[in-house]
């Protein structure tokens, strides 16, 4: 099978200008794979941060996920399509937050206060050390 028809484990590469540094990277097969994996891992890290922030209400999840999708979209064709779709959803969420500033702020501040109360309770009641003792660590 010709190399241009071989399946790509991380998906088809996105288009890049022919005289760009990324094109020069793609011309070196070993370096191209290392670069693609690095781009994938960088995007995955940002998205993982966004998912971790999803326990908080409000728009705090959106920026790191958008950043991760943007990073992916620089190298992966499938991510470009997903990024455009997510961008539309993010704009809708931002418009909603601007249209309802009091409730959006209250939900975001309430979520942050709930997290702070949870952290305080974990420390005050020494829950982590009690769980460690119960498990035997």
TrEMBL record:
Which residue spans traverse the membrane? 34-56, 62-79, 100-122
What are the entry keywords?
Membrane, Transmembrane, Transmembrane helix
Q: Which InterPro entries match?
A: Uncharacterised_PGPGW_TM
Protein name, as recorded: PGPGW domain-containing protein
According to its UniProt entry, this protein's organism is Pseudonocardia charpentierae
Lineage start: Bacteria, Bacillati, Actinomycetota, Actinomycetes, Pseudonocardiales
């Amino acid at each position: 099978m010709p190399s241009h028809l071989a399946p790509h484990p991380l998906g088809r590469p996105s288009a890049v200008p022919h005289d760009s540094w990324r094109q020069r990277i793609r011309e070196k097969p070993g370096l191209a794979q290392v670069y693609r994996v690095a781009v994938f891992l960088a995007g995955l890290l940002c998205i993982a941060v966004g998912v971790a922030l999803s326990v908080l209400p409000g728009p705090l999840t959106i920026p790191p996920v958008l950043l991760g999708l943007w990073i992916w979209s620089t190298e992966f064709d499938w991510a470009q399509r997903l990024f455009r779709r997510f961008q539309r959803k993010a704009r809708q969420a931002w418009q909603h937050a601007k249209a309802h500033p009091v409730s959006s702020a209250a939900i975001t501040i309430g979520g942050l206060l709930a997290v702070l109360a949870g952290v305080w309770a974990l420390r005050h009641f020494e829950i982590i050390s009690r769980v460690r003792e119960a498990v035997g660590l």
